[in-house]
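Allow me, if you will, to draw on your knowledge of protein folds for a short while. A protein sequence and the structure tokens that stand for its backbone fold form the material at issue. I would ask you to consider whether the tokens describe a fold that such a sequence might reasonably adopt. Thank you for your consideration; the sequence and its tokens are set out here:
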Amino acid sequence: MTVVVAVMALVVVIMLLGVPVGFSFGLGGFIILAITGLDPRFAIPAAFRNLESYTLLALPLFIMAGGLMRDADISRRLIAFTMSFLGRIKGGLGMVCVVSCTIFGAISGSASAAIAAIGSVMIPEMVEQGYSRGYSTGLVAASSMLALLIPPSIPMIVFAMTAQISILAAFLSTLIPGILMMTAYCIINLIMSRRMKSLKVAPKIAFSEAVGEIGRSTRHAGFALFMPVLVLGGIYGGVFTPTEAAGMSAVYAVFVGFFIYRKMTLAGMTNNIKNSMVTSGVVMILLFFILMVSRIMVTYQVPQQLTQFIFSFTTNKWLVLLMLNVILLLMGMLVDDVSGNILSAAILLPIAKSVGIDPIHFAAISVTNLSLGNITPPCAPMLYLAGLIGGNLPLNEYVKPAAYFMIFGALPVILAVTYVPEFALVLVNIFLK
């Protein structure tokens, strides 16, 4: 146990020095094997067996679908659709950004895809309409969390696979939290927009003109809006599995991009497939090494000893939940959401079960916390990605606006999900039980 903890501390230091997460865990795993004399054949084949999963195939397919949807012009049409409803309100453009990230999350399941697709369009548009570039970038970064909460969610697929729970139930557990967070962000944006004197607001138009504008945008975005219906309706209607839904979303994006919107090119599609293969390869390497380390930790009973350590302070269920939230948030600051959810399912889920927490409820707690960690320094990969998309901004220009949404929007939702299990379980109980 002492050796494992010491090496894991070394892994954290290595990551902070800039070594990729997957290789950091791989190095840590092999150091533990060398020091303890544990047979590598015990840990390495187990990690490979976990990767040989039909369910896991959804990951590269959703990654590919996210890039294809961007090139198919789906993201721009989704933004135009939400603009027709909200664009003539002061602060409406910020709400368009939030809602667009939510809808795009219901298609791609990826925060980075949402930032790239929505941010590249919305940040310049918001700056043109009088928002500061820092505020626009911070809002996009915070809104990227919604892409991880609204199903389908790539981190949730990973958590469910590792924890061996229903992917459909895990998807449903974060739907209400995602909608609550979207609503909170919209309200915060409206409040903050009141102080912005430079905002341009589109002139009011007659009701008949507004209806016509909504009708036109709906018609132009019809095929884009059908995509979440296809993916989620197909999954929950029992037509196809999450893996098949991921494949269908990629095929649909290609069809719409080539034959309906005619914005996609063969060269662009080929480039997207190559990029998704590289990203998927990185994710698989990451998964392999973390699963290997998780196997070693289970062997040395790290989860059980961590449980005993926490219980030495308190056995109160609500205080244990608070401690788990703090651990998850700190974990999210150091590692990406995929690796964080694997570690959470392998190490922290047993602790949650020991105090009577439903695994589906804990899945929602884990994903919401680690999503917030994605935009919380020091690592904050999604925060920095938004800064790059926003024009290589210095961190100090957009971290403060993002912090408003994190503190007053994300944190209250996380606490609500943690201490009111019904937010995570009500839809599961209605549709799957």
Observations:
- Residues 39-431 form one domain.
- The chain has 22 helices and no strands.
